[in-house]
Specification:
By secondary structure, the chain is α/β, with parallel strands linked by helices. It has 21 helices and eleven strands. The longest helix has about 35 residues. The N terminus is likely disordered.
Length: about 700
């Protein structure tokens, strides 16, 4: 009577361990990504680099699981894994005494400005959570292998779907539960406690599996169809690489144009995991007649979105990119399920799938930035994934009639050539007419010549958005242009500042160099101090032959601090700025860590009495006015909105918010006349902090 009771209990034990392990595996990615994001300027590549690390560690965990299951006896597997679990738990306990939380490094670990961002992120992640993550990464394949031994005859593949479900829950719990409720240190403690619980449950599974008999190794007479051949393994690898590349490339594309926050990281990753769940748990959900046409439509739609860019609108872009990602993932993962081997090759199968995922991460996070001057990894993934899907379909599903097979092959060839032609044309178009193009960790910079009416100017673009222009002849080459004209919010804050009107010298701070336009406000005796995280931007305005000469032409004393502005300001003594301008957006993407309560508190520590904070909020998709007002309300600041409607070939329409400690700090008549409330002053405002920010609250309708 005891045997039937033990069997379901063991299943529950394995299910809890696998589900909780996957939950923690993905939850920690968001916690650490959130903490590291402001340390590296809020760049989209922060998340891509984090994903690269986690994919490499996932590959390491799968390799460890395959090695244990393939080379060691059940008892030896138990002992080795119990030691790994114990070592990871001890490491977390030691960290609890020296860090704010066992996985939350203190601010002393913030990198220097000279450090390579990619290497710094990989090093921080390895030191912070390397061993615990490796143990968690091994959980899925290792415990499925043990489950096949403990419950012979029961398919372990359903546990893979459970693993992905746990990952999905881990993702959704972060932006909707953990992030708004707790600071980073509190999040780290919740995760660490969860890891200790997981370690106990996993240890129980190890003990149970250690006493079970080993699965008989396949003999040399295994039927050839059951033993995976090299070509089949290569197909596994390719089918895993494309979705991984699509995931990271799509996330980068979205982050460039909107914001780099966990909520937008979650959407593509959720669809990626959803495809695993559907394909492995509900195999009938992958229907070629549905998903292959959707992949074809998605490839065309994504090509259109790449051409249209910001002009397609944020919601339309999100829908196109996310639907396309889901179609590619469903086709590739659905075909993977059709190719899955006998359970005795399970750990090898997962190892190759993980290697494909890691290869996609390496291509997107390391190879593409080194090889390509633009974000070409998404167009490449679109075409290669399309071609692979067509190959798999032609290889296994076309009818055998010669004329129909030939007609189908012709259609695949025409479709592939059409997609390739459109994508190549888009890639070539990105490089046309540029004087200079460079790509690094912080994105793609372009310098070209354009014109406004009959006036020619040199233009700096980051992504698809102009970040400054300079006209080619005097007097326009030394006057403030684009979003920084004298009637803009920042122009009024400087030119109508009480100290400027009284003839006193000003100390001006600017977060975000751009083309250096703000240097034009520096008069004799003034000091203008820029903070710029991207060395490539600084290089455009310095040296013997700069593309932009605002810094050299300024009458004031100009200085440039290279590095993330928040990190630099935290380390500096109070600067005593009269005006501090915040204008560090990348394309239309906002670095949310520069628009939080903690950030504004820091800015005012560097503003002298009577100083003004100017925040640039011009944005195609987001209405940031309520965010700034919410922060001002929390800190007891006086907040005003300035909309500059002037819009010609020299000065463009812009939106700025001005903040001051007191109403009297904005008592200049010219400045008062320009102030115009934009929204109901009694409306409830969202409150963004370092721990929480919600884009849905500020989407433009």
């Amino acid at each position: 009577m005891t045997a039937p009771a033990r069997t379901p209990a063991s299943s529950v034990l394995f299910a809890v361990a696998i589900g909780l392990g996957a939950f923690l595996l993905f939850l920690v990615q968001f916690i650490l990504g959130k903490q590291l994001l402001p340390w590296f300027g809020g760049a989209p590549a922060v998340w891509t680099t984090c994903m690269l690390f986690f994919q490499l560690l996932l590959l390491g965990g799968y390799g460890y699981a395959h090695l244990l299951a393939d080379r060691f006896t059940p008892a030896r597997q138990r002992d080795i894994h119990l030691a790994a679990l114990g070592l990871a738990a001890v490491l977390l306990l030691v960290r609890a005494f020296v860090w704010p939380a066992p996985i939350s490094p203190s601010d002393a670990w913030k990198p220097d400005a000279e450090a390579s961002p990619i290497l710094a992120i990989l090093g921080l992640l390895a030191f912070t959570v390397g061993l615990p993550f490796l143990v968690l990464a091994a959980t899925g394949p290792l415990l499925q292998s043990w489950f096949a031994r403990v419950r012979p005859g029961v398919s372990p593949y359903r546990l893979y779907a459970l693993s992905n479900l746990g990952s999905l829950l881990g993702m959704f719990s972060y932006p909707f539960a953990l992030e708004p409720a707790l600071p980073i240190a509190g999040q780290g403690w919740v995760w660490s406690i969860g890891f200790f619980v997981f370690a106990g449950v996993c240890a129980a599974c190890a003990v149970l599996a250690g006493s079970a008999p080993a699965i008989a190794r396949p003999s040399g007479h295994v039927v050839s169809d059951s033993k995976p051949a090299a070509g089949r393994k290569l197909l596994w690898f390719a089918l895993a690489t494309i979705p991984s590349t699509m995931l990271l490339a799509t996330t980068s594309q979205i982050s460039q144009e909107v914001a780099v926050i966990p909520f937008l990281w979650m959407l593509p990753l959720a669809l990626y995991l959803l495809s695993f769940i559907l394909c492995f748990e509900y195999e009938r959900s992958y229907v070629r007649a549905l998903w292959l046409p959707l992949l074809v439509i998605g490839a065309g739609g994504a090509t259109y979105a790449l051409y249209a860019g910001v002009y397609a609108g944020m919601v339309l872009q999100l829908v196109i990119y996310l639907v396309t990602l889901l179609a590619y993932c469903m086709v590739c993962h659905g075909e993977l399920v059709r190719q899955k081997p006998d359970p005795k090759y399970l750990t090898q199968f997962y190892l190759i799938v993980s290697a494909g995922g890691a290869a996609g991460g390496i291509f997107t996070g390391v190879v593409a930035p080194l090889l390509f001057p633009e974000f070409w990894e998404l167009p490449i993934a679109l075409f290669v994934g399309f071609a692979l899907a067509m190959y798999v379909l032609y290889r296994g599903a076309w009818p055998q009639r010669l004329w129909l097979s030939a007609l189908s092959a012709f259609g695949v060839l025409v479709g592939s050539l059409a997609l390739a032609g459109a994508l190549v044309h888009h890639m070539r178009e990105q490089l046309d007419d540029n004087m200079f193009v460079t790509r690094n960790f912080f994105g793609v910079l372009r310098v070209d010549r354009a014109s406004g009416g009959n006036l020619a100017y040199t233009r700096l673009r980051h992504g698809r958005i102009t970040h400054g222009i300079q006209f080619e002849g005097e007097p326009l080459s030394s006057v403030p242009t684009s979003y920084y004209g004298q009637t803009s919010g920042v122009g009024l804050a400087v030119e109508k500042h009480p100290r400027r009107l009284a003839g006193e010298k000003l100390h001006i701070g600017v977060v975000g160099l751009g083309a250096g336009t703000m240097a034009t406000y520096g008069r004799e005796g003034d000091r203008v101090r820029f903070y710029e995280i991207n060395p490539a931007v600084v290089a455009l305005s310095t040296g013997d032959e700069p593309y932009f000469t605002y810094l050299q032409q300024s009458d004031g004393e100009v200085a440039v601090v290279v590095g993330d502005a928040r990190v630099a300001l935290e380390r500096e003594q109070p600067q005593g700025f009269d005006v501090l301008a915040i204008d560090a957006f990348s394309s239309d993407s906002i670095p949310a860590h520069l628009l939080t309560v903690e950030a504004v508190e820091l800015y005012f520590r560097h503003l002298r009495e009577g100083g003004l904070l100017a925040v640039h909020i011009s944005n195609r998709y987001l209405d940031l006015d309520p965010v700034v007002r919410g922060i001002g309300e929390k800190l007891g600041l006086h907040v005003e909105y300035v909309e500059d409607l002037e819009n010609d070939e020299v000065v463009w329409q812009s939106d700025w918010m001005l903040l001051a400690r007191r109403d009297s700090d904005m008592n200049s008549p010219d400045l008062v006349d320009a102030l115009a409330p934009k929204i109901d002053p009694d409306a409830p405002y969202p409150l963004w902090t370092d721990a929480y920010s919600n884009l849905l609250q500020v989407l433009k309708r």
